[in-house]
């Protein structure tokens, strides 16, 4: 049995479980004709939310006061589906950010407003699993609510899922968006420098993308370290002159000089991702 602590609407309440933990519970009509301190049977509960992060929990409770329980339930299903498909732990804030986002999108859809995602193709390329979940999410939305959203929205949902895989609260969807754009810009620098198309199906391409993702996170956190041994760097510069010139263009694009260690690994990845194409 659950004890009601606060009623949001007929279908959602804040309750205490048997261990006196705060828990949000959803169920059709579970709060109908109920009041604070009344009991709710577990048989009537359809979904439960236990958010360990206090800040996320408080914001989620505020959302429940303004957003339909139907939307909350739908987002719960999307997030659970994402966890299973991605096989990754998601930050509690996903329940707040994704629910708020989908509520906004649906309200905008009712008014005939849509916002294009200018990085849709990059998201498809760099985050295919998250994008696939986003496509499934807009299927859920159409099936449950009857609103047909453009695939651009699958990209936006994917960005929220990408962000939720990062533990730091400071990482926002905008951060992921900006990093994705920078990765695409660097890929274009490599393509134009070597005058070739990169094979996106190769392992070297995947490794390069992964390297760039972590590279930008290191830049952001100022975790760049300087190697004391420059011998290998000089050897690579002399052997792979095209990769060196390409690396210099990337430095110019970034507007900062990279450490010797970052220069070395960037050149090696550029050499690998372009050599396979020749």
From TrEMBL:
Record keyword Flavoprotein present: no
PANTHER family assigned: CRYPTIC BETA-GLUCOSIDE BGL OPERON ANTITERMINATOR (PTHR30185)
Organism field: Clostridium longisporum
InterPro entries in alphabetical order: BglG_antiterminators (IPR050661), CAT_RNA-bd_dom (IPR004341), CAT_RNA-bd_dom_sf (IPR036650), PRD (IPR011608), PRD_sf (IPR036634)
Lineage, broadest ranks: Bacteria, Bacillati, Bacillota, Clostridia, Eubacteriales
Keywords from the UniProt entry: Repeat
Record-level Gene Ontology MF annotations: RNA binding
Annotated Pfam families: CAT_RBD, PRD
Protein name: Regulatory protein
SMART domains found in the cross-reference section: CAT_RBD
Keyword Repeat: yes
PROSITE patterns: PRD_2 (PS51372)
NCBIfam families: LicT
Residue span, PRD domain: 66-171, 174-278
Gene Ontology biological process: regulation of DNA-templated transcription
């Amino acid at each position: 049995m659950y004890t009601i602590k606060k009623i949001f609407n007929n279908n959602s309440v804040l309750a205490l479980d048997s261990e006196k933990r705060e828990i949000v519970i959803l169920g059709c009509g579970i709060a109908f004709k109920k009041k604070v301190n009344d009991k709710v049977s577990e048989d009537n509960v359809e979904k439960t939310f236990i958010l360990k992060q206090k800040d996320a929990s408080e914001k989620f409770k505020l959302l429940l006061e303004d957003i339909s329980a139907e939307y909350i339930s739908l987002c719960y299903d999307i997030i659970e589906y994402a966890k299973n498909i991605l096989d990754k732990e998601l930050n509690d804030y996903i329940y707040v950010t994704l629910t708020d986002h989908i509520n906004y999108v649906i309200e905008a859809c009712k008014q005939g407003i849509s916002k294009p995602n200018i990085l849709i193709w990059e998201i498809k390329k760099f985050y295919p699993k998250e994008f696939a979940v986003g496509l499934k999410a807009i299927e859920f939305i159409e099936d449950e609510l009857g609103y047909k959203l453009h695939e651009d929205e699958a990209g936006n949902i994917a960005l929220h899922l990408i962000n939720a895989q990062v533990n730091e609260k400071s990482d926002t969807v905008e951060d992921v968006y900006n990093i994705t754009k920078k990765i695409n810009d660097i890929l274009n620098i490599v393509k134009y420098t070597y005058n070739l198309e990169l094979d996106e199906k190769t392992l070297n391409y995947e490794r390069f993308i992964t390297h760039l993702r972590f590279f930008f996170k290191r830049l952001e956190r100022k975790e760049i370290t300087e190697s004391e041994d420059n011998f290998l760097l000089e050897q690579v510069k002399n052997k792979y002159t095209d990769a060196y010139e390409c690396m210099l263009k990337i430095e110019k694009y970034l507007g900062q000089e990279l450490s010797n260690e970052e220069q070395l690994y960037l050149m090696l990845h550029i050499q690998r991702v372009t050599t396979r194409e020749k």
